[in-house]
Amino acid sequence: MAEVRLVNIGKTFEEGMQVVKNLNLTIQDKEFVVLVGPSGCGKTTILRMIAGLEDITTGELYIDQKKVNELDPSKRQIAMVFQNYALYPHMTAYQNMAFGLKIKKVPKAQIHEQVMRAAEILNIQDILQKKPGKMSGGQRQRIAIGRAIVRRPKVFLFDEPLSNLDAKLRGQMRIELAKLHKKLDATVVYVTHDQVEAMTLGDRVVVLNEGEIAQNASPMELYSNPGSKFVAEFIGSPKMNFIEGKILLLDGQLVFRNNELQFDLSSLNYQNLKNHIGQEVELGIRSEDIYPTASNLKNYVKVKGQIIAIELLGNEKLIYAELEESSLIAKVKAQHEAQIRSSIDFYLDLEKAYFFSKENGQRI
Amino acid sequence: MKKILIYIFLSLAAITFLYPFYWMIVASLAPESEIGGLWFLPTKLTFASYIQMLSKIPIGRSLLNSIFVASLTTLGVIIFSSMVGYALALMKFKGRNVIFYIIIFTMTLPFQITLIPNYITMVKLNLVDTYAALVLPFLLNAFAILLFRQAFLGMPKALIDAARVDGCSDFRILFQVLFPNIIPTIVIVGILTFMGSWNEVLWPLIVIRDESLMTMPQMVTLFSVGGRAESQLGVKLASAVLLALPIMIAYAFFQKYFIQSMASSGLKE
What we know:
The complex is a heterodimer of chains A (364) and B (269). With 364 residues, chain A is an alpha+beta fold. Chain A is built from eight helices and 20 strands. In chain A, the strands form four sheets. Chain A has a six-stranded mixed beta sheet, sandwiched between helices. The two termini of chain A are 39 Å apart. Chain B is mainly alpha-helical and 269 residues long. Residues 261-269 of chain B have low confidence and may be disordered. At the A-B interface, strand 6 and helix 2 of A face helix 8 of B.
């Protein structure tokens, strides 16, 4: 039973820079929560405050119902895995994992048992006598996780643990981490700037922007129901496309209009748009909701563009196109013929479109 | 051809450095009558000068004194200067930089300026003619503090964070986590401190009068300059060799640690 609760947590550095603002967040027992955001959004600072490596300026932090603001990191029953692994270079893998327990004066036999069990879970028995300098990145990563497991913490804290690995290994470790979470049955707080990691690992994803929570939801909810332009843009690859325009009431019909296109909105189920007549908005649409043909689409709008680049991904390709005033990235089947510098018609599926206020970026 | 010229030039340069040293050793082993005209090898090698030296001054005792004083000073400098360096590099407190700059400033003061105040302190503390007088004033040293501070600043921050999560106190972080990873710095500080302490003449001359507490350089200086060598060059040279020997041995022993580097430590920032 280890719930982590942040109540009105704030962090201001000595230089007066406020990096975390009045944050409220509860991480349930055994939940895998990912904190994600661009660099400088405060995610690592939040993790370090939970770990006790950074003082909390304002607010209260509870781990397992106990206020831990002033408690030493080692007494918070947490374990942390660092981005650069932070293994002790002069110790073998075994000693690295055993060090924390040794300090706690755990009997030798018990240390051995705990280290060996962690080694078994991570399948690292054969490198226990190696020093970090002689290991590959993936092996170091495992030892770092092993060091965390051995402590038998109530909460695991991961600080961008996969960002130093190459792409292939990262994918592999991602799956292993997900499995590990099931096996360990522990609360996990995981920080990353990689939205793919966030989406694949988290039970819940907290998107942070400038020290504040932009949205806190399940991965699917974030993807299909982003609350703001920031979240919509941050989650999903390639990025969501945005087209600026205005909501207008023309002859009793609600329309979206800019210099190159105009289309009727009344047949769509966007009730809220009525409250934004005359306002500047941004239409957001994901690459996979843009088609080269209109077949099967009920509500769509056609736009004309010039292809400026094509990226082949295998069974799909990304077409980068420039419209008169904006640009789009469309994800189409690889078989679809397209030539750079030729013009192309796109059909945007309006039923999958999002509208955001130009003024504050909030979803309409 | 160019390469050969370079080699010849460098060899000559090396010889100008090595020859006086070589001459000192050979001359100390030559019969007294040959020293004046000696340039490469004497007709026979003899330990006469050494034997004579041993009979004239208590060199053995002073050798032990020197080893004791230099070792204790070195150990002290490594422990205390690293502690100061650690605080200056990794602990957050008000006035940290001011303290650091003051420490750096003390490096610009020549030893002669602090000589008198230090002596007065020793007198007031009743430490004149004790080992403490030889060790205490040298236990902290600005240059060592600077070297340690820089070494600690170069360590990945996460390593210290990891140690904190593991439950390490500052002392444990310093001595168990950081020390094994800054061995080159420790060795450099150690050698410089040991040599500095070993070669110190002026200070012992001021605070030590009891012959049984005298260090070797002090003894040799008194011996050579003070007339007890009875102007026998061989004996003076023998004592000079004996003076240089421990430093050479210590250097040869520690030199292999210089090779150890952070290159394969597996740290990545």
